[in-house]
């Protein structure tokens, strides 16, 4: 089977900036070697952050879990491209009489990335079945009274 040349991804449209005051966007340059993957990762990150902010479930402690989720998406995409190009089965070496055909290592890694993504989506409250089980992040509010201005700061 002849390999088909890989298509170059289209340039991503300009996205509106996301409020990074709660969770800052990871440095994708350090984590991902391919520029196209960095663009895709940024899109996934923005989508997740926007959804969590809209549902008021984003906390600063979610930052690394969101990063791991995005990286699981990227690994899944990488592996699915390899499985699509090379096939589901790695053929045995014809010179070795004891060798057997095996399931592609990329398929195994793809399944592992899928499992990781599903687990993280559930923990973050992103999967439909878990949305109702994740509570809103309680924001601390400063209580003030009229006398505070008169009495001054406590301490």
Characterization of this structure:
By secondary structure, the chain is mainly alpha-helical. It has a domain at 28-127. The chain is 48% helix and 3% strand. It has five helices and two strands. It has a two-stranded antiparallel sheet with strand order 1-2. Helix 2 (35-54) packs across helix 3 and helix 3 (63-86) packs antiparallel against helix 4 (105-124). It is elongated. The termini are far apart. 17% of the residues are buried. The model has no long low-confidence stretch (mean pLDDT 82).
In short:
This protein has 155 residues and is mainly α. The protein contains 5 helices and 2 strands; from the N terminus they run H-H-H-E-E-H-H.
- As laid out across the biggest beta sheet, the strand order is 1-2
Give the overall pLDDT as a whole number. 82
The number of distinct helices, counting runs of at least 4 residues, comes to 5
Q: How much helical structure, as a percent, in the residues? A: 40-55%
Total DSSP E strands: 2
The biggest sheet amounts to: 2 strands, antiparallel
What structural category characterises the helix and strand content?
Answer: mainly alpha
Q: C-alpha Rg, in Å?
A: 23 Å
Low-pLDDT segments: none
Report the order of strands and helices: HHHEEHH
> Which word captures the global form?
elongated
N-to-C span: 76 Å
Assess the beta-strand content as a share of residues: under 5%
